[in-house]
Write a structure and sequence with these properties.
By secondary structure, the protein is an alpha+beta fold. The protein has one domain (2-94): Nucleoid-associated protein YbaB-like domain (Ybab, Chain: A, 2-Layer Sandwich). It contains two helices and three strands; from the N terminus they run H-E-E-E-H.
């Protein structure tokens, strides 16, 4: 039974570290762009889009489809980068253990 108590303490310590890491990751950001930097998106570790910047030159009322495609590409890239950042940091914390629901 003593071994089970140690396992529980370790699990609680890991959970505490993970909660702290999630708070830290919420403050960290990644940036992605599309169209040679004409559309830039910033997202955080919670995978929330924080900002979208669009250069005036890319705004063409006759080609809204292109602008939509650039925004979509930049947002998806930013969210992918945010997810990769979270996975990398969680992997460091868990030592590569595959813990379902943690990433």
């Amino acid at each position: 039974m003593k071994g089970m108590g140690n396992i529980m303490k370790q699990a609680q310590k890991l959970q505490s570290k993970m909660m702290k890491l999630q708070e830290d990751l919420a403050e960290r950001t990644v940036e992605a762009s599309a169209g040679g930097g004409m559309v830039r998106v910033v997202a955080n570790g919670k995978q929330h889009v924080l900002s979208i910047e669009i250069e005036q030159e890319v705004v063409d009322p006759d080609d809204v489809d292109m602008l939509q495609d650039l925004i979509l590409a930049a947002v998806n890239d930013a969210l992918t980068k945010a997810q990769e950042m979270v996975s990398e940091e969680m992997g460091k914390l868990t030592g590569g253990m595959n813990i379902p629901g943690m990433v």
